[in-house]
Amino acid sequence: xxDLREISKTFNPGTINExxxxxxxxxxxxxxxxxxxxxxxxxxxxxxxxxxxxxxxxDEGRILLxxxxxxxxxxxxRAWLIGRVxxxxxxxxxxxxxxxxxxxLAKRRGQKRGLRWQITKEEREExxxxxxxxxxxxxxxxxxxxxxxxGGQRQAVTLLMASxxxxxxxxxxxxTAALDPATAxxxxxxxxxxxxxxxxxTLMITHNMKDAIxxxxxxxxxxxxxIILDVRGEEKQHLTKQExxxxxxxxxxxxxxxxxxxxx
Length: 264
Description:
The protein is an alpha/beta fold. It folds into two domains: 1-71 and 168-187 and 199-264, 3-Layer(aba) Sandwich (Rossmann fold); 82-110 and 117-166, no CATH class. Helix content is 36%, strand content 23%. Strands 6-7-8-3-9-10 form a six-stranded mixed beta sheet, with helices on both faces. Strands 2-1-4-5 form a four-stranded antiparallel beta sheet, covered by helices on one side. The protein is globular. Mean pLDDT is 87; it is low at 258-264.
């Protein structure tokens, strides 16, 4: 479903601020894989997601998604293949538009649009049913402005929007980092359910080791723009946080110093 073939990305090349963010990184994901990504600050996690999404071009290498070579495609041309939920609950939605209008935009992504704007009775009923399934009481607030929702509600809505068209790949970019622990746990539960029900191939960045171990069928750890650890199946299920720290220290030959990771 996803193939990253030796992709590299360097910011500010040839200057004092040069930063190698990705170094010949390769990753293969099969359809239905749910991969969690962990690593210290500056490891290249978000750069990898942005490269996949087309936010910026890679310097070398190829990106293939569902058999399509999307390496040279701009972000908007990849949108019909990719769903994404950001760390900031304020992103991913139009806060001044109604809840049903946001859902309609997501539902019609990639389709040709005319001058007419109308949400049909059938569409409205579908949105109501899908919101009811979230268990947050939003099915009765279709005409409410999204900006009035809480952070957790907005992330749940963004998850729903990102999965409405069943994308080939779902990107979760630390989507619970800005939420309190109880709300974050609820959003992660919803994430698991949406991924499972829609059989979505998913890549989730997290700073929380426990979440990285608990969710998904595969875990990769990054350091200095490279993947240094890739575990799955039985090995992943039986991993502990301490073992993960020890593996990082051994493979990277440096201590894991990110407070966000160590305190998770």
